[in-house]
Design a protein that fits this description.
Layout (H helix, E strand, L loop, with lengths): L2 E4 L6 E2 L1 H14 L12 H4 L3 H10 L6 H17 L6 E2 L3 H10 L3 E5 L4 H11 L7 E3 L12 H10 L6 E5 L2 H10 L3 E4 L15 E3 L5 H7 L3
Parallel strand pairs: 1-4, 1-6, 4-5, 6-7, 7-8
Antiparallel strand pairs: 2-3
Length: 220
């Protein structure tokens, strides 16, 4: 069986504002105020909680690895409490997923968001049942760009690991697909826009309406 595996943050949904709000919660708790901007720093949000904390601390006193480790669980708790205040699915995302399923593709999610938070977000968005498998950052001992989480997602779908592709939005997704020896489709509607094309993905899309045709052209 052929499969299409999706990244979550920055690919299926724009989660940046809620992620940055969680990081700013940490900074306010330290008396530093809101150090990140939900628009200007949106791209950093898609590189994870520690990246946001590092960026914020660099603006006041320099990044402190100990403080970042201390604040990371605080960030996760704050994010989990308000996981879908501003988050929105990108236009056409689930319609594209349903078209792929209707064409016989198995679909799954492989994300560097902790699995429990990913499960909760997909449930709150009402789309968990659209995906046959979900692998998060802590499902395995390793995370993307290691290819193991992608391969595990495909395995849980019962699909052929040689007949899959990864849909993502960052260099992490590009490196994951390359390490697994499968094609990568990068979206250009995220905060970095067409800059992802410099990563030389096998394909790209500017809207989810284009995904089915692009995946078919990959001839998985």
């Amino acid at each position: 069986m052929k499969s299409v595996i999706f990244d979550l943050d920055g690919t299926l949904a724009d989660t940046s504002a809620d992620l940055i709000a969680a990081a700013n919660h940490c900074f306010r708790g330290l008396g530093l105020g809101d150090l990140l901007d939900p628009v200007a720093d949106a791209a950093t949000a898609f590189h994870g909680g520690r990246a946001m904390l590092q960026l914020g601390f660099s603006r006041v006193e320099g990044p402190d690895a100990v403080e970042i480790d201390r604040q990371y669980p605080v960030l996760l708790k704050a994010y989990g409490a308000d996981i879908c205040v501003h988050t929105r699915l990108y236009p056409g995302a689930i319609a594209a997923v349903e078209r792929l399923r209707g064409a016989g593709y198995a679909v799954g999610v492989c994300t560097n968001k902790p699995e429990g938070l990913a499960e909760r977000l997909l449930q709150v968005l009402g789309i968990r049942d659209a995906f046959g498998a979900l692998v998060g950052a802590d499902t395995l001992p390793v995370r993307k760009p290691d290819p193991a989480p992608l391969r595990e997602t495909v395995r849980r779908l019962g699909a052929d690991p040689a007949r899959t592709c990864l849909i993502g939005d960052t260099d992490t997704d590009r490196k994951t697909a390359a390490a697994a020896g499968v094609p990568c489709v990068l979206v250009t509607f995220g905060p970095t826009g067409d800059a992802v094309l410099a990563l030389n993905p096998e394909a790209s899309i500017g809207h989810f309406d284009d995904l089915a045709g692009v995946v078919d052209a990959l001839a998985l």
